[in-house]
Amino acid sequence: MSLTSRQLEILSFIQEWIRERGFPPSHGDLAEHFRFNRNAAREHLLALARKGEIELSANDARGIRLLKDSAPRQFELPLFGNIAAGAPITAPENAQEWLRIDPDLFRPRADFLHRVDGDSMIEAGILKGDLVGIHHQAEARNGDIIAACLLDRRTGEESITLKRYRRRGSEVSLLPENPRYEPLVIDLKRDADEQELPGFRIAGIMVGLFRPGAPG
Amino acid sequence: MSLTSRQLEILSFIQEWIRERGFPPSHGDLAEHFRFNRNAAREHLLALARKGEIELSANDARGIRLLKDSAPRQFELPLFGNIAAGAPITAPENAQEWLRIDPDLFRPRADFLHRVDGDSMIEAGILKGDLVGIHHQAEARNGDIIAACLLDRRTGEESITLKRYRRRGSEVSLLPENPRYEPLVIDLKRDADEQELPGFRIAGIMVGLFRPGAPG
DNA sequence: TCGATTACTGTGCAATTGCACAGTCCTGAG
DNA sequence: CTCAGGACTGTGCAATTGCACAGTAATCGA
């Protein structure tokens, strides 16, 4: 039995709440957040329990247990796809998958993983299919490997690409680590003004990688 | 600040309770189980919070969050050093460290991690300092990257090295992925007989890698 | 058109719950 | 000996909380 979109909203909120605080929300907490009646909260919980998503413990305050995916998210990282239209590309609810890798194994802490889809960074030891750990931050130093977020203004689609970062004045170069590829140069002044250029922002810096599987 | 034995009892009970039910116990639940007053429960919780074991959310029913890891070892991998004398090099009790990475993220499952200490595998995208995931198995196919276990018969020390495996008859070649290094060739027949040669066995095959930190 | 389901509002109650305050008993360090 | 801290008992209160019951409205397949 599948969930309605509203029920999925409620379930996601409960998961998020538990991850953040370590204990489930009460009926009142749900009602306050969604701005509905406490009884509406109760009925949603009953529906989620009926559909096997959660288990309710009768008469116990916050007596909610997540049945699916009950592992603590505290030690997991979200993996994001390459392209997002509309919603921000690195919003937790858009995660393709959650991998049980402790974010604190990276320095600084990783906020999400990104799958590398080409061989443009091969000389930095980053192969196609590798999952790179990214620490969310809007600025980078020269020489950092960054997850660059490029916006195609015609389609509204955002994509993430991994490149070495170099900035001179208002000119940003995104350098591949493979002689067969060309650097991408962006003029921040023009980028801010013109509509034809792809919008650019730094999604974060690379803080490590995970490779599931041996190389060829 | 360390816990008293009583406080440890209480903390263990809370961890167990959460694992079983998915939400923390109330003061009353603690009081009922330990057959003491509800206020005694509260004071124990305050003590645990003071000592940094838990975090309490004021006025929230069951507002307890565990701060230190209660993550099951199930989702962790041991990291082994390079050299072991005497005891088998990959015995869990000799682990340098346990890292929270789900062994099942690798295919096949990883049994331990090994830190790469040179650049002999650089062309396979494996850099110095990388942690490679190894699946325990005694045999390998040609082309597999293996963790080779070499025994120095004079000192009794075992060391692990990562190489690509190739076997022709009784001749095993351990091939680096770097033109500046030479292959290591072992004759299995002579290895079994003579005392001067280093003993060789396959500790396992590489099934992935983890790199904490960005490259240069 | 009917019934089922979803998604709510509104009210009320009894039990649960966190918390405050007042005490007791014991142990170990200064 | 004193004093602090741990480990409790006991009481009381206000807020929180789960839950029951009574409705409303919209949607949707039969």
Provide a descriptive summary of the structure in words:
The first copy, chain A, is α+β, with helices and mostly antiparallel strands and 216 residues long. Chain A folds into two domains: 62 residues, Arc Repressor Mutant, subunit A, CATH 1.10.10; 138 residues, Umud Fragment, subunit A. In chain A, 20% of the residues lie in helices and 32% in strands. The first copy, chain A, is built from four helices and twelve strands. In chain A, strands 3, 4, 5, 6, 7, 8, 9, 10, 11 and 12 form a ten-stranded mixed sheet that branches. Chain A is elongated and about 65 Å long. The model of chain A has no long low-confidence stretch (mean pLDDT 86). The interface between A and B is large, with 45 and 44 residues. Strand 12 of chain A pairs antiparallel with strand 12 of chain B, so a sheet runs across the interface. The first copy, chain A, binds a DNA duplex (30 and 30 nucleotides) through helix 3.
Summarize this structure briefly.
The structure is a homodimer of 216-residue chains. With 216 residues, chain A is α+β, with helices and mostly antiparallel strands. Chain A is 20% helix and 32% strand.
Ends apart, CA distance between termini of chain A: 41 Å
Oligomer: homodimer
Q: Number of folding domains of chain A?
A: 2
Q: Looking at CATH, which topology of the largest domain in chain A would you report?
A: Umud Fragment, subunit A
Q: Output the number of helix runs of chain A.
A: 4
In percent, how helical is the residue content of chain A?
A: 10-25%
Shape of chain A: elongated
What's the mean pLDDT score of chain A? Answer: 86
